[in-house]
Amino acid sequence: MLRDPGNIELYVTDDGLAVKVKSYAPPGGSKAPLTQKQITGRLKKVGIRIDIDHELINAVVAKAAAGSDITGLTVLKGKVPLKKGTLYFKPRGNPEFPVFKGMVIGSMEKHDQDVPGVDVFAQKVLPENSTRSTQSFKVGSGCVLDKESNQILARGYGQVLNSSLEVKVKPLFRISPDKTRITSIIFHSDFQGESITPERIVQSLTEMKLGSSIDHKSIEAALSKAYQTRAPQIAVVARGKPALDGRDGYFDPSEAVKPPDVNDQDVNVRVNFREQSIFRSIVQGTVLGRLYPPEKGQDGLDVFGNTISAQPGKDSPIQPGKNVEVLDSGDVSALISGLVVLDNSQISVLDFLSINGDVDYNTGNIRLDSGSVEIKGSIKEGFSVKSPEHVLVHKNIEEAQVLAGGNVEVSFGIVMKGSGKIKAGGLVRCKFAENAVIQAGGNIIFSSNLNNCQVSCTGVVSSTGKGIVIGGKISAEDHLELGQIGSDYGVKTDVFAGPRQKNVSKLQDEKTKLIKHHKEIKEILVQQAMQSKTGGLNDQQKQRTKELMETYNTIQNRIKKMDRLILEKSTDSVDPQKHYVLVKNIAYPGTTIHIAGKQLKIHEPIRSARFFFDPSKDAVVWS
Questions:
Q1: Residue 162's closest CA among 138, 184, 190, 145?
Q2: 480-485 and 468-476 as β-strands: parallel, antiparallel, unpaired?
Q3: What is the chain's Cα-based Rg?
Q4: Is the dihedral of CA 93, 95, 96, 98 positive or negative?
Q5: What is the DSSP string of 140-183?
Q6: Which residue among 227, 355, 410, 547 is least packed, with the fewest CB closer than 10 Å?
Q7: How would you class 388 by CB atoms within 10 Å of its CB: exposed for 0-12, middle for 13-18, buried for 19 or more?
Q8: Distance between CA atoms of 341 and 407, rounded to whole angstroms?
């Protein structure tokens, strides 16, 4: 038995003609995956003398890397001995060159004497000492045995592959998955030394019922080069016509609603009209853009002449919403004056309140029952704005309370002192924020910096400019893409990616109480059941038993529900590809990265890194 220092165990078969995998444990933690070098090195250490078949070992390594069970697979083969009278294949040509349909590639012959084999230790193995020496020789795929002549004939254009136990012809025509191309290896000479002509290749393709899809020019060019170089050439020998899928519909915004050209550090410059909301004030009748319908596409043909259906284009991801209409020309026009909003794949014009200045003592607090609000100045300290839809602030939010059912977009900054808060059902966008508490039901997008903020969102926290985060706690249930975290002064900064680990202690305490109560009721019911058998129960006791039974069943159902809740809240699925923290520049000491309940404290500056949870190490790592 051969035991590898790593995680694979090999053994030599009893007849010594093969080495196989006895067991294999996939690597975990810091262990390296299985490699060819690991297997070959071990084989040499135990005295293997025959040549190592690297192709065979590579196949085993590939299966292990794919997660397949490799137990029992062969990593090394000896030469099988053959008894007198055993069938074998006698070739009639050079297997380095191809055969064509009907060509005699060899014959089935019988050994006129015993043929010794060789085991993996390079020792001779006589036929009488081997159980494998009487194994029958097989005629495999791509060829056929003519029983009258005992000759083996090729069934098509291909290359002869011969082992000690089988002969087969490997096809040299490769059909693409969509059947729009056939690729082949073209040689200048065939198996029996005859020159290959374009007509012979074309004839082989014609027998496949290809017809007009055959590419004669490509075949001739490949053959010409094969003759010149005396080396095989790869060529596309048949071409179909791929289907042309229809173009998807789309919405092209007009100049009236596109963001204005501003400094590249301005938040509005980074707005993607097709993905994020845009606030622009317009008047009734304004053309917001044009909606282009999807196109059908064009069907194609495969190399066999069959139709390949084209996929029709999909509807535009942006559709008309509230207070807009689509004209016959495709133009999307505003039915009312208002605020243009692109949200949830709809472009709408919404009622809005426009404040031509600041929210301060002149306006008082803003409370809307419907629509959105546009503030052309700032929201001053101590004031609040509440809107069931969107809030657009052209300047700053200063120590204020802002509650929006939709998005909150601030052209400049959010500056707080400790009591202000922003809560949005959608995204929050700003240039910078200081000492701010921000909660978003969508993404949080900033361009400059977040200083000592408490930020959380269900989507992504991302930066469009410098993207500096210093101090505070920044949390995104999806992922974060930032420029810099912390500073060279070691400011404590916590960053969370992915679902936060939930506290289930209260649920467990409640479940314990329910189980105790459930047990007490069960004991009472058992006593009443015994009393019923002996002396019976009066009507009042029967009613009491019925009520207890109902309570017993109710508590039992609540315990089951509690088990489900505890399981759900205790097992957050963490996708290493989805939940991560990307730092484009530097993550400084003082920063702690939290993912999947694990944390990584940074003690030295780390540049241009992606932090993620590695399940195999049960830790937060970076690359």
A1: 138
A2: parallel
A3: 38
A4: positive
A5: -TTEEEETTTTEEEESSSEEEEE-SSEEEEEE-EEE-TTSSEEE
A6: 547
A7: middle
A8: 10
**Environment class of residue 191 by beta-carbon count within 10 Å: exposed (0-12), middle (13-18) or buried (19+)?**
buried
What amino acid occupies position 112?
Answer: D
Q: pLDDT tens for residues 474-493? A: 999 889 999 999 998 989 99
How far apart, in whole angstroms, are the C-alpha atoms of residue 70 and residue 10?
11
Q: Tell which residue, 371, 340, 354, has the closest CA to residue 273.
A: 340
Interatomic CA distance for residues 58 and 617, integer angstroms: 27
CA gap 456, 384 in Å, rounded: 20
- Is residue 97 left, alpha or beta, with left meaning phi > 0 and alpha meaning psi from -120 to 50? beta
Helix (H, G, I), strand (E, B) or coil at 506: helix
The residue ranges of the chain whose pLDDT is under 70 are: 1-6, 27-32, 129-136, 164, 259-280, 343-344, 500-506, 533, 535, 565-577
**pTM for this entry:** 0.46
Instruction: Decide: helix, strand or coil at residue 405.
Output: coil
Q: Which two tokens stand for residue 25?
A: 């444990």
